[in-house]
Design goal:
Blueprint (H helix, E strand, L loop, with lengths): L3 E5 L4 H14 L5 E5 L6 H12 L13 E4 L6 E5 L6 H6 L2 H5 L4 E5 L13 E7 L5 E8 L6
Parallel strand pairs: 2-5, 2-6, 4-5
Antiparallel strand pairs: 1-7, 3-4, 6-7
Helix pairs in contact: 1-2
């Protein structure tokens, strides 16, 4: 993998959203974030911060049942994709994701381990893990968008 790696340990939901905002401010059109993590790890929570930084005013919720939620924002669209219920990569491609992955917005994919080989090499990898003390460990790999402050 190319690009930088970072590890963050937000202590609360608010800190996780704030980290998402810091990440979102650095994203550019065509960026793809592939998320992995257990249920409740904070995938949708950090996506709320990313959405806020992109200028999305709608309430961001988990796309588990609709598979893809598209949010129009100020800077660019956010495509929030949930691959949990998909039966594989063919199902993923049948959603029309190529337009999203190579389009003018940012794509955030939850449960990306189910569709990994379909994603561009430039994909930013993010793994989220809840910790016993209630905090989360968030690892980001293949980051090429500057320093996350």
């Amino acid at each position: 993998m190319t690009g930088g790696s970072f590890v963050f340990t937000p202590q609360s939901e608010e800190e996780t959203i704030a980290l998402g905002e810091r990440i979102g401010r650095l994203l550019k059109a065509g960026d793809v974030i592939a998320m992995t993590g257990t249920l409740g790890a904070g995938k949708t929570t950090i996506t709320k911060g990313i959405a806020k930084a992109l200028g999305v005013e709608d309430t961001v919720t988990s796309p588990t049942f609709c598979l893809v939620s598209e949010y129009e924002g100020g800077r660019m669209p956010l495509y929030h994709i949930d691959a949990y219920r998909l039966d594989g990569e063919e199902d993923f491609l049948n959603l029309g994701v190529e337009e999203m992955l190579y389009g003018k917005g940012v794509s955030v994919i939850e449960w990306s381990e189910n569709v990994g080989s379909c994603l561009p090499k430039r994909t930013i990898r993010m793994s989220l893990s809840p910790r016993e003390d209630g905090s989360r460990e968030i690892k980001i790999d293949n980051w090429n968008n500057g320093i996350i402050e």
